[in-house]
Every structure is written in C-alpha cells, then in structure tokens.
Please model this.
Amino acid sequence: MLLRLQLIWLIMLITSSVATRAQQPVPTNIRVVYDSTALPELYDQLSVGLEITFSDGSIKKTEGLLKGNYRWSRLHITSSSGKLENGFLTLDRRQLAQQQYQLSLSVTFPNTDTPLSTTLQLPRLERIRFNHYADSLKRNVHFYLNVEGVFSSGKILPLDTAAVRFQSSTGHLIGQDLLLEKEDTVTRMISLKAISRTDPAISASSVIPVKQLPDDESQIKNVQDVMPAGRNNKRNRNRP
Model:
C-alpha cells in the first residue's frame, strides 16, 4: 500500500512539473542591436544586445549594452562571421565583406532544442576618396596621404594603412607618407592610388603636382627663371 502511494505521488510530481514547464513562456523572436558609437566602420570589436520576445508577449533584454537582466551565460550563440561572447562581438572583416556586411546569429535558449535566428546589418565601406591637405608636393618633405572612407551609415571617416594600401608612380611610400627625393628634379606629377584591403574593388586615384619653384623668392636669381623667354623678349622690345 505504501509503495503504491509513493508511486502515485511520484507520477503526480512528474505530471505537475511537465505541466508547469509547458505553461512557462518560451522565446519566439529575437532582435539584435549594436552600439553605433563604437564606430563599427573602423573598429573590429563592438557591444551588442539582444531583445527577446516570449510567447506571452513579454520582452526581456540582455545585460550590458541594453541594461537588461537576461544573462549572456544562459545563451549558446553561433555567428556567421567573427565571434560573440558576453555581449562583445569581434568582427572578421574579410568574411563580412563577402557577406555584404550582413551577420547572422543563431541563439539557443535553455530547455529548448530549436535555435532562433536573427541578422545584423553592419555599415560597409561604399567608396574611398583622397582629401589632400596641400595642393602640391615638395621635394624632400613628407606628404601625408589623407584618405577618407564613405560608409553606408552616412559617416565619412579617415582611413589608415590598416584599411587601405597605397601605390605611387614614383617616390617612396613610408607608412601613410609619400617622400620624393631632393635630387629628383625631373618628376612633375605623381600618380597615386588607394585600395581597400577588405574589398580591392573599391579604390581611389589622384594626381599630385610636384612643387617646382622654391619657397624663398630670394633664390630666384632673375626673371628669366620663371618667365618664358618669348614673353621676356617682348617686354624688352617694348621698353623706350
């Protein structure tokens, strides 16, 4: 008799537990957001957050960026590019470029076997352009190659050698500087090209003139050094 009562009690306990679990709201949808102030256009790590919608209509947010109370440790997350851990997403830009900067996340919740999926559209580089600080290059003086990126977010941001590589028709490329030797008295123009490292199809070209006259006018010995001979002779003929 006692054994039968214990068996009945165990069955009731299991049934109650299953019924309680069945009544608990389950996740039905997720939305991922990122911290736009972290400049994902340039940097490879940014904070993200999840908004989780449940079957009863309630919404919970993850800790960290969204200041919610849902712990990241309760979630198992896989990413189509890069890695997401504890609310910090580390990007793989080469892989992202191949995916048009659309990242897919698969999130598995406790006590569920079927993961939920969501996508995150990150800003992508649309074009690059030169924005020179000077209109000509001086020999034996470092000329900084100022390049800007125009992004799908609408932002225009400076790019460095981590984002672009340079080519020049002559001179020496030193980091992001171009140097033309003082002894080079032949070059009049230098052709430049900047190429995106993550997407070589995106590039920009520019031509920089080389300064021909000295900055100090006292170094100009006579007017013939800067004036065409024909024009100078004409002026001499017009003198009384």
In short: The chain has a mean pLDDT of 86. The longest helix spans residues 2-23.
